[in-house]
Amino acid sequence: MTDNALTIALSKGRIFDETLPLLAAAGIVPLEEPGSSRKLIIGTNLPNVRLVIVRASDVPTYVQYGAADFGIAGKDVLIEHGGDGLYQPLDLKIAKCRMMVAVRKGFDYAAASQPGNRLRVATKYPDIAAEHFAGKGVHVDIIKLYGSMELAPLVGLSDAIVDLVSTGGTLKANNLEAVEHIVDISSRLVVNKAALKVKHALIQPIINAFAEAAGQS
Ligand code: PRT
Ligand code: MG
């Protein structure tokens, strides 16, 4: 795309919903709602600004390679991605949750997680989980899953899970309990480093509007 056009990568669902007010503060209004539209490229009220709708965990990749100029991604996704090629100017304080260790109710986690012990941990976040347990001196076999981590301890696939918790409703409904807090998570603005230079005049006012709308200017 040309130097006066902008592509923004977003995932549908909670990040899209919570980004709408920020976009509006920057004068950007999507022409369609990705929940109902099957389109992957969505125009906006501004002829030079478009949105691309991608999986939450793919946002950093689109931005890293410059297929999108900027995007919004959870800190969970950014830690696992590593952040190469990304400028992260702003914590937008949206899509907040907590990265937690959880186990079946009644499981003696305190005993199982003594230093030197070995634990099977199912997660979509192998790097975050490995670092957490390394810090405690607990050996872990990490079992990588792509979703529904909550099932793993219930059917004997793992002793524990590392997953995101917001209301706690999913854990409760599945007879699990959170036993350790790893890190607080919220979503960040991620900008392609080259685009920030070349399209600075277009991107900086949007960053400023987002910062103000997110209460950080
Ligand atoms: O759904 P998909 O596989 O496409 O990708 P995704 O699940 O990564 O995307 P999405 O849209 O669900 O999440 C996007 C981002 O929102 C994540 O990267 C997080 O930064 C953030 N976020 C905030 C959450 C949650 N809250 C959250 N509660 N992401 C996921 N959850 C899940 C959690 O994994 C668990 O299964 O919701 C369930 C727990 O919720 P409670 O409310 O029952 O505790
Ligand atoms: Mg999801």
Automatic annotation (TrEMBL):
Q: Quick one: where is this thing mainly located? A: cytoplasm
Cited function: Catalyzes the condensation of ATP and 5-phosphoribose 1-diphosphate to form N'-(5'-phosphoribosyl)-ATP (PR-ATP). Has a crucial role in the pathway because the rate of histidine biosynthesis seems to be controlled primarily by regulation of HisG enzymatic activity.
Top enzyme class:
transferase
Gene Ontology terms describing biological process: L-histidine biosynthetic process
Pfam families in alphabetical order: HisG
Describe which pathway this protein belongs to, using the record's wording.
Amino-acid biosynthesis; L-histidine biosynthesis; L-histidine from 5-phospho-alpha-D-ribose 1-diphosphate: step 1/9
Q: What is its EC number?
A: 2.4.2.17
- Which PROSITE patterns does this entry report, sorted A to Z? ATP_P_PHORIBOSYLTR
Q: Which family is this protein grouped under? A: Belongs to the ATP phosphoribosyltransferase family. Short subfamily.
Task: Write out the annotated subcellular location.
Answer: Cytoplasm
- Keywords in UniProt for this one? Amino-acid biosynthesis, ATP-binding, Cytoplasm, Glycosyltransferase, Histidine biosynthesis, Nucleotide-binding, Transferase
Q: How does it assemble?
A: Heteromultimer composed of HisG and HisZ subunits.
- Give the GO molecular function terms: ATP binding; ATP phosphoribosyltransferase activity
Q: Where is the ATP phosphoribosyltransferase catalytic domain?
A: 55-210
Name the reaction it catalyses. Answer: 1-(5-phospho-beta-D-ribosyl)-ATP + diphosphate = 5-phospho-alpha-D-ribose 1-diphosphate + ATP
Please provide, in alphabetical order, the Gene Ontology terms of the cellular component aspect for this entry: cytoplasm
What is the protein's species of origin? Neisseria animaloris
Share the domain note from the entry. Answer: Lacks the C-terminal regulatory region which is replaced by HisZ.
| Name listed for the protein in its UniProt record | ATP phosphoribosyltransferase
